[in-house]
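idk why but the lab printer keeps eating my pages so im just putting this in chat instead. protein + magnesium ion:
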Amino acid sequence: MTYCYVLDLHQLSMHYKIITIFILLTLPLVSLNASASHSLKGIEVYLLPEENPIKMQLDTLFLEESPIENISTLRKAGFQLIIPSKKTHPIIARHPLFKGVIFKLYLEVQNIGKQLTETQMWLKRILGANKVRKIIDQKNWNDKFKVPKKWIYLFPHNSENSGNRRSILVEEEMDIFDDQGNKKMWKGDSVDQELLAMLHFILEEIGLRDCTKPGNIAFCRDGRIAFVDTQTWGEWPVSYHRLSNFLSSPMDVCWKEIIKNSKHQLKI
Ligand SMILES: Nc1ncnc2c1ncn2[C@@H]1O[C@H](COP(=O)(O)OP(=O)(O)OP(=O)(O)O)[C@@H](O)[C@H]1O
Ligand SMILES: [Mg+2]
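predcted complex ->
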């Protein structure tokens, strides 16, 4: 038999009224935390493997004090910022002990909103990178494009970190040009109609809305383009027009023709 309870606050004593109102107000917070912890299920395959030497070194670094408390603790722990930090964006950093990788992380003092935990955001970036890699491999376009490997590093259980954060993202470092060099490449001879058509195919298939600016699709010293920011996928329409600002005039004409074939058109 199913019973249905209808809550009538008037029938309750003041004491119970206060308790009931408190429970009702805190319910959404409880379910948010429940979904956040639930989200850790199934991420094992995306974690930095135990046998990876970086994992052991990171454990040592994160076991005692939390390096990600604020910018000072981060620097004290040896991390060096690659680009200036932005308020709500992840910090992008290197560490001299860890060659060939970079770190994306949120400090405890940063406000990242309540939509997704940082671990869920890292997972999104990993899944986006996997989608890009799959197309590059299927199409045999590895001579033109690449995408860094990415892993979630979960802080050790016995770490003294008492904050809200549970993880950082470890990424294979790509040999990208600096901002100026990258923009120069985007205006240069390496960009032709065929490359733009390939790029359009990848962006359109995956819905990489934000991958139309040089910072997110960066030219590397080996001549390939690296998809370094794979967070916004499955988000159509892609902001194709933004790339126009970074192309030579003839290539911009080509690009405008190519993007006419997009299934998801941007309404402007
Ligand atoms: N794997 C990588 N290897 C080398 N450099 C990287 C890598 N990932 C990121 N970078 C550098 O850091 C910059 C910022 O990284 P990313 O785009 O992931 O951060 P973001 O805050 O999400 O950016 P956005 O401002 O586009 O939202 C990149 O434009 C690139 O210069
Ligand atoms: Mg970016």
